[in-house]
């Protein structure tokens, strides 16, 4: 087990009607608030009004910036930064899913920075100060509600890049499973895939003595797998929605990282796809993860055997562990298919046109991954395997 | 799943040599520090010097209060409160195990309270302010290093009582598994039992839809069970010590509480024993928990079947689930025995002399437990089952 620091201060407020306390939770951080959100869905659902009323009850002055899109753009972030600087905003409230929260995090850091906010994503600048952030979560998927990271797309060159700082962790996150009832099944499935991918990135590590985190990963994966079909077939099943929502946070709050170094190649490989093609991040992961597994499993067959056995209940074939390992990968692929995810690039009409370019771009700063280090030619082979 | 708030701000600093950063972690909270500890073991091991040097490097003025005993006494807490008030202490550093940390928490709250500190334990006073606390942990067991609770014994009447407040959660906890190498095997086993009991108290709940927390509980229990014999047989096995140490924190940091109401009767039933007889808390729990289980399992046989199957790999006998449930309880009892714990009061020379009195005292404020509500006569029967 490696040395680690686990430092997650996000207060999780979970359950029915909890969005009604957003005002009292926010006012602790100041009286001038930027309300950040995506499209019209929060207005249609009534959530927008509930939030606004709760904020007004606390006499909070509310500035607004809507319009966050999936794969949030740096242009809108820059707009938010300007808004915050010009109006001396104290606090940013993100109401939405991972894209809105990621956008809010970038704005929060940019608001306290003299240079261009994109600097954080190129390594040119570091986050040393940040406005506090709160979250009302509507899409369980990205885990951004209590993570320290953000992923932003720069339209100028279609770069999708991640950065992180403990300062970016939200102060609180309100998770009401009822708010996820209206998510279309495809988006629900993308969320399920995304949270599973967050765990898998951590699970495939070269660290040998991480039994507790291995088992916590397996526990969370099993819970997601057991509830995924229910939330898709019965969108208003509170208990299943609650399991998925809480699992999505646990998957990415860094608990499952403790004592180990995760891989993260699949996320980077996928980012190139959704950076160019604008497909859902979850769908891209459902395509890339099994392909990545097929490419790397021989590096540590035992770990893939453990995955097959403990997560998918595949019996271990002691005479042929490779068969067990491959059966686990197959189970994952079949599961993604069963919840309506694509598992090949063909299914989403992506051909090999940009493979070389994407592989090059993904690895231009450093080789990807930690479980196995991947260079451009490896990444291109994974795109091929994903066809 | 019930609504919940999960709010744990304790920063965990885990790994080899991490006690060396205690000065820089502490100085954030002020320059006048109370160093609180137990007996001479931290001086013999050199930990005392390491901590003191690290504090002095930050020019922290150190006041000292040693002498904390297992089942920490309110008399020493009162001494600490006076010390803090007279010297305007900013921060309390607990170096030791659960007793030292619990004592530090009571002092921290008492230092900001006008009345007598025992008021917090009788319900007469509430914690509304508290000095910040830091921890260097030497005994993985109580989980007090990131919990919000404390248990103190009042010698005047042999009362052992618990209280809690989010304000009491330590700001940071330093966990170096190497510091636990010198723990005698009996104490190690007591710690293992204590942390398992913390999970079991949460596991046996009437809440039906808590799959994620159930599985996280099972993951942590399995890890403890798998590593317990190793830490006893090979006290300097870093990896096993690390698993046990991290599991002890997870067991009691409230993550495994989310969405459910735990039971906690067994802790209260045990407190009466260790309040009178001064036996180790862990040993008392190894005796009481199986007895409690035998008394209540019929209330929800399926939950005990799940426990037997998922934690102990007992095959489910569908024609006789009761048999499976009892097999799980038996496995737990055998496990406690196998690590050198007593599983009956006889083994620790406790006869039935005080059963009626202890049962009455345990239930004098309210009936115990949530899974099943227990009154004095129930508790007395559990003491009888534990003979």
UniProtKB/TrEMBL annotation, chains A, B:
An example Gene Ontology cellular component term from the record? cytosol
- InterPro entries assigned: ADH_Fe/GldA (IPR001670), ADH_Fe_C (IPR056798), ADH_Fe_CS (IPR018211), BDH-like (IPR044731)
Residue ranges occupied by any Fe-containing alcohol dehydrogenase-like C-terminal domain in the UniProt entry? 189-384
One Pfam family, short name: ADH_Fe_C
Q: Which UniProt keywords apply?
A: Oxidoreductase
> Annotated Gene Ontology MF terms?
alcohol dehydrogenase (NADP+) activity; butanol dehydrogenase (NAD+) activity; metal ion binding; methylglyoxal reductase (NADPH) (acetol producing) activity
Q: Oxidoreductase as a keyword?
A: yes
Per the database record, which ranges form the Alcohol dehydrogenase iron-type/glycerol dehydrogenase GldA domain? 10-177
Query: Is the Transcription regulation keyword given for this protein?
Result: no
Matches recorded under Gene3D superfamilies: 3.40.50.1970, Dehydroquinate synthase-like - alpha domain
Family annotation (PANTHER family): ALCOHOL DEHYDROGENASE YQHD
The protein's name: Iron-containing alcohol dehydrogenase
Organism equals Metabacillus litoralis
